[in-house]
Amino acid sequence: MLKIVGATGKKLRILEMSKVSIDRTDLTDVTCAWYSRDIFAGGTPSRDSAATQLFFSLVNESPRLQWLHVISAAVDVLHYQPSRARGVRLSTSSGIAALPIAQCVVGAVLAQSRGFGGWFASQQRREWAPILSADAPRDLAGQHAVIVGLGPIGQEIARLLSAVGLRTTGVRKRAVPCSVVDSTLTFDEIDAALADCDWLILCCPLTLQTRGLINRERIDRLPHGARIANVGRGALLDEVALIAALETGRLAGAYLDVFEQEPLPAESPLWSAPGAWLSPHNSALSSGNGQRDAELFLSNLRCYMLRTPLRNEADSE
């Protein structure tokens, strides 16, 4: 079912519209709408479900819409822009999937750092091939993770990595101290942290400032054997430069959940790049997300009706 919520003053009316029969005269009453997970279901971040297409066509036809709540953490989704352009308030579900995304990143850090890639490969060959002492992995304790973006995802990554002994540097718009990292830098200061970075982790939004942030020059600043993880947006990272660094062995590995083009084309060299682990923009998946999203929306609905600040409102800072 497609759910659009209309509220006038303190009176609430919920419009549940089937995909087949929709009375568009009701849209004149709609002042707020919730892009919920059941509408997204059946789609992907790069391919809309039929319900998503229908939902946003109705949203764009609702002349009195004041507020739109969406399931994503990002605000750069094309579907949201018509509403934002006409002054509709937008709130996101930032933080809802922070823990599962962070667990995927930390899982990759632990597994790649401990040698699971080699063990998986020898298992496929049915070969008993212990790692020799000369090639023993470094202790995780004391390694340095540079976490670009200190929103809910970045902070959760930092918390988990600190628990296993990594030193953490957070990169954000302003170098305001953050309790879950050892130090903070601005985006303009990121170069200072790359020379001794073991894991460069990208989890920031895509903006004019962050597009192409990790280019060939910055990849070259990383020490030999460093690794990169990207769960932010594909356009944060120069994929051509990343592939070259993986193929030459300059970088030891990468974990990527987002890509410049999605779905990732079958001919992309990333599929077979040495040390690259890929997930199809799927790291946020978790059975508890729907409940957390519903709770956030209902909390924000109360705030909306009481005219108090919304949580996660875009451009609210």
TrEMBL record:
PANTHER family: 2-HACID_DH_C DOMAIN-CONTAINING PROTEIN (PTHR43333), D-ISOMER SPECIFIC 2-HYDROXYACID DEHYDROGENASE NAD-BINDING DOMAIN-CONTAINING PROTEIN (PTHR43333:SF1). The keyword Transport does not apply. Pfam families: 2-Hacid_dh_C. The keyword Acetylation does not apply. InterPro entries: D-isomer_DH_NAD-bd, NAD(P)-bd_dom_sf. It comes from Variovorax terrae. Residues 107-282 form the D-isomer specific 2-hydroxyacid dehydrogenase NAD-binding domain. GO terms for molecular function: NAD binding; oxidoreductase activity. Keywords: NAD, Oxidoreductase. This is D-2-hydroxyacid dehydrogenase.
